[in-house]
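Appendix B, example 12.
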Amino acid sequence: MDLDFDRQHIWHPYSSLIDPPPVYPVARAEGVRLFLEDGRGLIDGMSSWWCALHGYNVPELNRAAQEQMEKMSHVMFGGLTHEPAIELSKKLVEITPAPLQRVFLADSGSVSVEVSIKMALQYWQSQGHPEKNRLLALRNGYHGDTFGAMATCDPVTGMHNLFASHLTQHLFAPAPKPKFDEPCTDEDMAELRQLMEQNREQLAAVILEPIVQGAGGMRFYSPQYLKRVRELCDEYDLLLIADEIATGFGRSGKLFACEHAGISPDILTLGKALTGGTMTMAATLCTDRVAGGICRGEAGVFMHGPTFMGNPLACAVSNASIELLLSGPWQDRVARIEKQLRDELSPLNDADGVADVRALGAIGVVEMKQPVNMMQVQEALIDRGVWLRPFGRLVYAMPPYVMDEADLRQLTGAVVDVLGKL
């Protein structure tokens, strides 16, 4: 493997080409392990950025891909349709919170957020309210790297401040204060309510990550907060966009994180785990109200259409992934992972440099008091047979649901050992 070429020519995510960070060559992946070119096997605690919930080289997903490739890998979705897309849309309508009934099949998580924003804006345009063209987002929120999505990420603590002068200026409410198991008070909602009251004439929608704020800090917040946001959106006639790209398909302990609060959004974005980590795929769902409002407007159609929308290969694998998830004991597996993460990371609560240790569903987080040296910590974890990718002050794990107790124990033991020595 030509690592010199990689170092000189290939841009990896959030990396420099002047002083590139080390990259580790993967030869293959099997189960919950990544096997490097040098023969080392690493337990993957990241599920390849949270998407490989079944692990790797999964026979059911491989078979779905192979069977579909023999028919067609891709066909345009404009004026054509196919069974994998119909079947996937049926599944999504069935398993997502009612009354989400309309499905737009996109090709990446960021694009699904772009679609959700365009849906909200075009809806109000079609209702004769073009002035309702701003969104209300949350501090510590993260929704993607494309321009529309970047504009809804936290402009201060997020990763996109370099582009601030080029982004649409949306409004931001404080990050939710009550933790997952805490009640939500009127005081906790006061500033959000005030922003809605003061800007109701120009606000189109609220966009948030339900229950778990991911890349903005791995923060778990109260279901009561989410429920009250839904109530405020109804009171002020705002659409609610729920970004479940990271939390969808069981990651938080519920099939969708909105279920913790018993609410349904007007628009829902999905991605990451949709194909079980096999290939890129995303979806944006909305209610009949949103879809009808858009299609009865000036354009008469929704103004978006990616080339690879409804890709048959991705749809077929998505169908297989959803069937595999729902046919197995995923709730028991996620509950066991949560308990094990909580129990086995708990010794770090007493470590000097640790600010907090928390777990929810198949998410375990160690928050340090100071930013960690990512390369130092990552290399130390690799030496212990574990793959994680820390960022900022966070060392966190989002393992595949199929990870057994022994592998997860090795993972948590490595984290406790490495961070305990910092």
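DSSP finds 13 helices and 16 strands in the chain. The chain has two domains: 3-57+329-420, 71-327.
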